[in-house]
Design brief:
Blueprint: H1 4-40, H2 44-48, E1 51-59, E2 62-65, H3 66-75, E3 89-100, E4 103-115, E5 121-136, E6 139-151, H4 156-159
Parallel strand pairs: 1-6
Antiparallel strand pairs: 1-2, 3-4, 4-5, 5-6
């Protein structure tokens, strides 16, 4: 039978573990938001810095490895906006994060929203991310981010360039 002190310590330990997981989820969510802002502002260097040195971004436009390689592959397609009237904004949706110590997996969806010609908003497309993350000395970073388009529909395995269709 557990003593009162041991029972109290067990409760405190369980609470600390739940608090640590909540803090980790918040940190990962903030990383998602920082990445969204970086891509929307075409700060591809900052986007790349959200990955480990061997981190992989793969999607329909190609595959990049490491912060520099990821910035380079995305830079081939993501040019600075001609004007605010032609830009898009990302919205991150349906985020699920599972943490296991110093590593995590996550899945989410994203939309690109752009101004329509009549001044209203238009959803350009809907996509999904499959992510793997790791805790580093600088905080949480991506080790893998697979990006693919859901609408308009394309078979996901053909979009995950260089990943073997994982």
């Amino acid at each position: 039978m557990m003593t009162d002190a041991a029972a109290l310590q067990a409760r405190l330990d369980a609470m600390e573990k739940r608090l640590a997981q909540a803090e980790d989820r918040e940190a990962i969510w903030r990383l998602f938001m920082a990445m969204q802002a970086a891509i929307d502002n075409r700060d591809l260097k900052a986007y790349g810095e959200g990955f480990t040195e061997d981190g992989v971004w793969a999607g329909v436009v190609g595959r990049g490895v490491g912060p520099v390689g990821i910035a380079e592959i995305l830079g081939q397609y993501m040019k600075p906006w001609d004007s605010e009237a032609t830009r898009t904004w990302h919205v991150t949706l349906d985020v699920l994060i599972d943490i296991d110590g110093d590593s995590a997996t996550a899945s989410s969806k994203f939309q690109h929203i752009t101004p329509a010609e009549n001044g209203t908003l238009r959803v350009w497309h809907l996509g999904a991310y499959d992510d793997r993350l790791v805790r580093t000395a600088q905080g949480w970073k991506f080790t893998q981010r697979l990006a693919y388009v859901i609408v308009p529909y394309m078979e996901p395995k053909f979009q995950r360039v260089g990943t073997g269709g994982e």
